[in-house]
Records
---
Amino acid sequence: MTKPPVTISLCMIVKNEEQTLARCLDSVADLMDEIIIVDTGSTDQTKTIAARYTDRLYTFDWNDDFADARNESFDKATCSYILWLDADDVLLEPDRERLRSLKRHLSMDIDAVVMPLHLAEGEQGEPLFTSRRIRLVKRERQYCWAGRLHEDLVIPEGRIVHSDVAVTHRRMEDHTLRNQRILARWISESGKLEGRLLYFYANECFDRKEYAKAAEAFNRLLGEPSGYREDRITACVRLAECYLHRGEPEQQLDSLLRSFRYDVPQADLCCMIGDWFFTRKEWSTAAYWYEKALEQRGVSGLRAVPLPCYSWLPHVRLSHCCANLGKLDASYEHNQKALQYLPEDPHLLDNERKLRSAIQNLSSSARPLK
């Protein structure tokens, strides 16, 4: 029996995205079977640009609720699967090919697909910071969005798979003031500050550099009897950063270790703990935590993490630790492993020369006299 072809509806909500919308659609339009764009009140050329790509253009009366707008866009879809993007997202060419392959081979018994979201890039375009989002869902499952701000797709049940198709986020505008306004209204109408609403409030305080308020909110969140595991891990990370900015190093370390209540040690947490000891020149203890970071094989979960902690950074730190412990061969080995990720890095290349010279000099001085 021939497998029915997978068809995909691209669903987007937009407002005043004239600078980014064409870039986004150019990267994905030819891979879609249907493009649905819901405009939430643009006053620039967004709708004119959108009309060049689709006639499925709709208007939504904005009500400070992103989930409502996204659900409206999903309601318009007619294809077997729905892909969602923001206007400042883009698919790079390798990911276009991966999406093309995914569409060709995706089994119709899959209900949702999780994809990486690259949030920051390095000088060579390499991803530096990434999270994972549920990006593609089967339309007939009628999954819905929840949350006025920082909305999420709610998947109560279903078969979920992970894909290597990455979406690259290239934000051009700062939405901090908008987010603060929506959050303030949400808190006012809710009448209580707890759960995910408390989590969002804590993050907004952190982003405004109000570290005392953020620390208090994160501690309240962690004191609640239940909550999302990954929110709690992120809260521990940000709480540690609050204490760093406040000059409270012992509380900083305690917050990082507190994350182990919610999951096994993850590479970025291990690196942060290693850095705590590294700055105090406690080389053996720092090295222990960087070694633990290397034991973690890839990013797990959906939270945003710094990718260098899962690749080259532990090797760079271990090279320094080993050098300070007099273990020059091990230092050189870790420097070489870091160079596999960053082959043109001038600091690593300089370290390579210095370490090779130091090892040769040590070997020469150790030769017995004739």
---
Amino acid sequence: MAKISDVAEKTGYSITTISRAINDHPYVSDKAKKKIFDVMRELDYYPNNVAQQLRGKGTKLIGVIISFVTNPFFTYLVDAIEKVAYQAGYQIVVLQTLEEADREQKFIEMLKKRQLDGLIMTSLDNDSPEVLKLIESGKIVVCNRYLGDKDIPLIRIDEKKATYEATYYLLSKGYRKIAYVSANKPSRIHVDPRFAGYHEALTAFNIDLNWDYVLLRRASIGDGRSTLTDILAMGENKPDAVLVISDEVASGILSQCHLLNIKVPETLAIIGFDDQPIADVLYPGLTTIRQPIQELGEYVATVMIAHIEHKALPEKPELKTKLIIRGTA
């Protein structure tokens, strides 16, 4: 295990200067701080101030990494996690990445520094080797996130099955030009189980994938409105249905359809994902994939606490999705 003296030797700075840099002392230049922190990461050296102060008692803090606090899915998920954690004597710290890799990395380093007892990861940002190395260093539970074959507790619903059934439903209703709308980045689409389910259903009907219909980086109501603009710009070959991986984005598409007098579902069918409360009050009601957010959050928190306390992991409950048929498809 690296020591502060190793950092001093490699950087050429004194131990005093390195300590000041760690504590963000104004006497240390930004250039020196950058060099020191780069070497600390390279040597995998992290000060353990919090753990030393608490003398091994732990922080009783659990970090929850999410992409956007404004996303209603994360609001309900964090609510479920917090209630279980509180009952067990833990507090949660919500860590928002804004889908920025640097933010995510810093949050994972908080665990490495023992500022957190455990970390729940729910966002879909990066899986660079450096970040994966940090993930492997501590108590991590991954919720609805794909991390390849890493040996990390992974809790997720069957997203592939959910989108397969939704796409199959649209196809069985006669829709053939179905767009896929997601917040995902292009670099992650090939490891996206929701996209895989959509693609597999098209294949079952002998329909080739049209990449023009794969619309990515759409995460808000405003993105939904602009998505409809992009769809209409396709002219004669525009989609007749959309599978949207967020009720929020789907509601933006539906809202824009009303403004432009586009009939739903006659001209454009819409299916969302999550079954947020807004889905039932929209007109027409939003057909969507319901996922068990509360059960998911409760189980994630239970697993996290068992992991921290070195207890046997609880049996996984059935976390089933359900296609809720309303008026948009």
---
Amino acid sequence: MLYRSFIIILIATINTISLKAQTVTNNNLEIDLKLGVNIGGAAPLPMPQEIRKIEDYSPQLNASIEGTITRWFGTSKKWGGSIGIKLEKKGMRTGATVKNYHTDIVQGKGSISGYYTGFVKTNYNETMLTIPVLANYSISDSWKIRAGIFGSIRLYGKFDGYVSDGYLRESTPIGVKIKFENDSKADYNFSNNLSKFHCGAQLGGSWKAAKRIWVNADFTWTFSNIFKKDFKTISFNLYPIYLNLGVGYRI
């Protein structure tokens, strides 16, 4: 429903801008509608010593839809600037073997904080409204590259999972041992601790496949942690790092 509403608003906005742009210039303004998929995840940098081994990873289906306006400068139109509005999903599922991994788990009607050793399953999913502001360079009629910054507002977020096949040391690394064996699991949920805003850098390029069709690739690196600043349960930061692959239609 959210994607459908965004698509309707985006198309209406682009059509309005396109009509107005035609009265100004048909040569220096370009308007593109882009569809893509984000591949990547939220990664700790560097890899913390608590994570001993990544057992499994699934990038999920992270779709994106974007409208972009590019203004080219001068008669050569080598350099330009662009701004876009993008609705996108970023998510992943991972399983890891950890040692002394600080976390909070659900036990009965309450929760227990401590240091876990064993297997941890994580589900991460966010829907973002993103505004990229980029500098563009035209190598030729068929190749263009771009780089700049972006800001994102989180519309929906989820970060949860479970622990199994291990034990939790309550409160401290030498605290009371709580075992999870024989298919025993304990859940955790840090969705309410996700940050509302993200910012980062973007680097990408486009290749002209047909008269109005472009193939796009964009690498994004978020500088900010996915969690709020006052969230200390997980002792290391996680940074969304993604490659967006897709196609664009030149209006």
---
Amino acid sequence: MPQLPDAQAPGSISLLARSASHADPPRLGSFGAVFIMLKSALGAGLLNFPWAFQKAGGVNTAISVEMVSLVFLISGLVILGYASSVSRQKTYQDVVREVCGRAVGQLCEICFCFNLFMICVAFLVVVQDQLEKLTGSSEGEMPYHWYTDQRFALFIMCLVIILPLSIPKEIGIQKYTSVLGTLAATYLCVAVIVKYYLMESHTVIITPDVSSWASMFSVVPTICFGFQCHEACIAIYSSMENQRLSHWVVISVVSMLFCLLIYTLTGVYGFMTFGRVVASDILMSYPGNDVVMIIARLLFGISIITIYPIILLLGRSVILNLMLRVQRLVLTVIWITITLAIAMFVPDMGEVISVIGGISAFFIFIFPGLCLVFTMQTESVTPRIRVILTVWGVITIVVGAFIFGQSTTIAIMELFNKF
């Protein structure tokens, strides 16, 4: 681990002007950092936002929850950047292990792996939904045959495309396809807005049901899944040319505001278009023969097919570090098989996102809160600042624990209600 230069002794570093000097030369500018943050956050989570707005009890309630959540989302990003500068580590897991200790670091690796696993499940659910629409089976346009079933098509896709892409140790296609998720999300946002204004009449029921605390918090898992870029933010911060924490605050705020704009516009207009009958995957609410939405389905499908192997690679590397005796090919086949089985038998996007939102609370709330609390025990700051930031860290941890418990409980109850 690089040593701290004499000119940057702990007592002389301001909380809002801290720089981290890493072994690798920094090379990322402000625009590039914002763009990569957007690439990390924008994606398939957008599909669930109109449904989440409906579940929350309407536009006003959902936006209110979004705005409160935004404070914690930005706070988590800033804390992680600060923790990276303190620990001199470049990955999320390494920062947590260095700052919070080995036990918390191992918990972080387990949560990281499980989160990636459930994201793969969500991706396959999205692909299955689009296959269902493209084959016309959801609307009875084609007679049913086993070989036209979307689950069979998904199995063939995993076997022929995803598995071969996932076997190599390194995946070079990432540099060419990583922008597709952002492109698909931006295209869908514009398409949903345009489709709303092209409607001949707006007669859908958008009057919300009686709002409750439970319905209000039901939007939180979708927000956590949609805005989740915290695992990647430390690598982005470590690669930045200007690593002053005040500059990182600006990057975090700008990135989250862009995400907020795209997610909110899609949520509002998608909900106003379909009202209470909006599907958990907004693309499922549009007809299968809608050319504009067919393009959106293709964009999301291609981006997911190419991103899935990258997510698998990250999760596989964590497991191989913990279980060196497991062969890479065997682990890859097991991973794809289990995620495929879950996607086939739990095809509701909302239920999958409830689980992901719960585990995301660790990365957005709990681990950043722990990093802040542990950092305040060792850093040279004034007693007042130490107390204020420690209290904020504890609040963040408590909120994260509540979101994890609430989201996971809802997901389990909805799953049991189906059997």
